[in-house]
Amino acid sequence: MDLGLNGRRALVCAASKGLGRACALALAREGVAVTITARTAAVLEATADDIRRETGAAVTVVVGDIATERGRADALAACPDPDILVNNAGGPPPGDFRDWDREVWIRALDANMLAPIALIRAVVDGMIARRFGRIVNITSGAVKAPIDHLGLSNGARAGLTGFVAGLARQTVRHGVTINNLLPGPFDTDRIRSNAAAGAAKAGTSVEAFLESRAAANPAGRFGDPEEFGAACAFLCGRQAGFITGQNLLLDGGAYPGTL
Ligand code: NAP
Known about the structure:
This protein is of the alpha/beta class. The chain has helices at 18-29, 41-55, 69-78, 102-130, 151-171, 189-202, 206-216, 225-236, and strands at residues 9-12, 33-38, 59-63, 84-87, 133-138, 176-183, 247-250.
């Protein structure tokens, strides 16, 4: 399927590794010029080289923290009029809500709710004026089914989801869709770092803990980031213009609901 994206420009946040990287790669394969961000320059540069080598696409790197005003300003300076915005940032740490003061909450809200809203605010009117735009927010399966030790993520992402639900209905008549992708367990660094706490609690090794989690998923495995990137590219494509305000769960069937 030709997604009709050749020649488009995308800003893909937090994209040196994992799901963000997979989205950038999938878009670059469709001929999109991508601007990718992350905080660690060396890893970001290496990812940019990999994407260029594989796809021949133009890749611009912006080193910075997307949860800060400075990080967003630098990203927008490099890619001021994106046709596609993929919002992403690292997830907040696990823990017990009794230990989280206001500062901890503000950090989670900044990264996983307010940063994506600020970037949408910066680019959406340009997309509307150009009559084409695709905004994809990477959130979490925790939006559908909260994860007990990830209360910061449950809360911050629910806030973003509520905001997007309203805005997505206002932009679609101008050719601009806004959707959320909800990852279940994907095989990335994030799942490994989160597993450490679970493994310690269960009195087992991180590898054994991850193996049992993968086996317990209805698919019998974790998701491959490439699968996630492909879903993102489809939502950004020409054919997806009638899909907006949706929360697409990619979790191998782990969420047990009928709808
Ligand atoms: P990952 O493999 O750890 O990759 C995170 C990427 O984001 C890295 O490139 C990292 O680079 C960058 N990053 C993190 N914080 C950033 C910031 N403030 N500004 C700019 N770049 C930043 O994580 P992932 O698994 O792809 O997860 C992506 C998102 O999906 C996270 O919010 C995560 O909580 C959520 N999620 C993941 C899963 C899963 O199973 N993987 C499940 C549910 C939800 P630097 O560290 O160098 O900045």
